[in-house]
Amino acid sequence: MTFEYAPAPESRAIVDIKPSYGLFINGEFVDGNGTSFKTVNPATEEVLAEVAEASDADVDEAVKAARRAYTRVWSRMSGAERAKYLYRIARIIQERGRELAVLESIDNGKPIKESRDVDVPIVAAHFFYYAGWADKLQYSGYGSTPLGVAGQVIPWNFPLMMLAWKIAPALACGNTVVLKPAETTPLTALLFAEICQQADLPPGVVNIVTGAGDTGRAIVSHPDVDKVAFTGSTEVGKAIARAVAGSDKKVTLELGGKAANIVFDDAPLDQAVEGIVNGIFFNQGHVCCAGSRLLVQESVADEVMARLKRRMATLRVGDPLDKNTDVGAINSAEQLAKIRELSEIGESEGAERWSAPCDLPANGYWFAPTVFTGVSQAHRIAREEIFGPVLSVLTFRTPSEAIEKANNTPFGLSAGVWTDKGSRILSMANRLRAGVVWANTFNKFDPTSPFGGYKESGYGREGGRHGLEGYLKNTEKGADA
Ligand code: NAP
Ligand code: MG
């Protein structure tokens, strides 16, 4: 039986997208050097705005503003005073939550139910959480001395959330910031700049410079940046690690992943199917910790696949602003081309492809939720990050075989385990080489919990007390590691 839903689109009237945006430097929007680029709505291909592209000289201005604010104001302020600004920002984010969610969905393509119920609440929670640390750094275990100016570069999959993960701990620890959002998703970072103005944050404490890879390169290689925080691809992460080698910059890198989501035969299968769907189709699969490799125990593989396909056929793909939408638009034409290419490679390598039967909109960038069965460990779709709504399914017989297959990857960001047995969860978690292991759930994020990878998934942790370490001089190293 199929159900017909009436469309239930969220109104766009709440957002005010300007025709063009400047750079946010020293508390003001400035023109920059005059070059610009366009950001589009990936669900419609509509051009949303013209956005300034920061040159090396613009980045230098931003770093100078951040340095001035650091030495004259922010590092001299008590933690309790800094906390007041962070609490204020957190409350404004809540107050303007609907505006932020709608703008995020328009610029990024993610469903409004996710931007509204996941992204924005987590963003506010990060500011609240780190506001609480600002006057308690002496208990952090990492000392309480800030580093100085932090240069931060973030990707397009969670534009606001990645901004919050970067800016909240940096400011709480007494650093100032120059941040570059991704080229395809700059608008919510620029709205956040307005929120900084609204919160009366001292000029220069937060600077937002828009641009592409060259702007990012100018930030991370700037000699007066003390700390580099990057989230993005492993390839660019490696280039950054090389660029800062030999300098005394502190670096944290949050890179790619290829998580195993492991389903044992004693798992409650309907819940596991929901977890598989959440693991790979949340945010169109544009998730570094996505459960993109399903490892299912052979004895229940047919049953799980039948239930999974039945469930996938009910996913609603389409208008990100529709409150019924489960899967939104692919973020860019470039990303869609990558997903298509790897999926074609999957077929040519001999895996069997099944896509949910859904009508895709005529304009915009779309990819139907897809699953590959008969995948072997050597296949590229089992090894490489697809970063889209594409699941690769492998089977196993014993827990040891599951561990071996799960760990057989250059990445190590996350993993999921589905079983009724508590003891098995613990033994699996201890043997999985992954920064985060979820048990009978997936893609759960909380500001109190550290997040980060092993191996080529990067180093350093964001979130929790551990997230402070990347922004402090760590004068107590060894005392409480
Ligand atoms: P990306 O190409 O590495 O881009 C990330 C950011 O770096 C963007 O702002 C990008 O600019 C900028 N950039 C590009 N080249 C640069 C360079 N040479 N120096 C400095 N900055 C540079 O990654 P993406 O394709 O946007 O994002 C997807 C990747 O991010 C996936 O691999 C995913 O796994 C990873 N990711 C990881 C986490 C995590 O926490 N571990 C979270 C989310 C995403 P432009 O794109 O604007 O040109
Ligand atoms: Mg866009």
Return the average pLDDT rounded to an integer. 96
Q: How is the main sheet built?
A: 7 strands, mixed
Strand content bin:
15-25%
Per DSSP E runs of 2 or more residues, the count of β-strands stands at 18
Bound molecules: NADP nicotinamide-adenine-dinucleotide phosphate, magnesium ion
Summarize the structure.
With 481 residues, the chain is α/β, with parallel strands linked by helices. The protein has 14 helices and 18 strands.
Textual characterization of the structure:
The structure is a single chain. This protein has helices at 56-74, 79-95, 97-108, 112-133, 159-172, 187-198, 213-220, 234-244, 269-281, 301-312, 333-348, 380-383, 399-407, 422-431; strands spanning 20-21, 23-25, 28-30, 36-40, 47-52, 149-153, 176-180, 206-208, 227-231, 250-254, 260-263, 293-297, 352-355, 370-373, 390-396, 414-418, 436-439, 458-459. The chain has two domains: 20-255 and 457-469, Aldehyde Dehydrogenase, Chain A, domain 1 (3-Layer(aba) Sandwich); 260-446, Aldehyde Dehydrogenase, Chain A, domain 2 (3-Layer(aba) Sandwich), CATH 3.40.309. It starts with 19 loop residues before the first strand and ends in a 22-residue tail after the last strand. It is 37% helix and 16% strand. It has a seven-stranded mixed sheet, sandwiched between helices. The protein has 14 helices and 18 strands. It is of the alpha/beta class. Bound molecules: NADP nicotinamide-adenine-dinucleotide phosphate and magnesium ion (MG). Residues 39-40, 107, 184-185 line the site of magnesium ion.
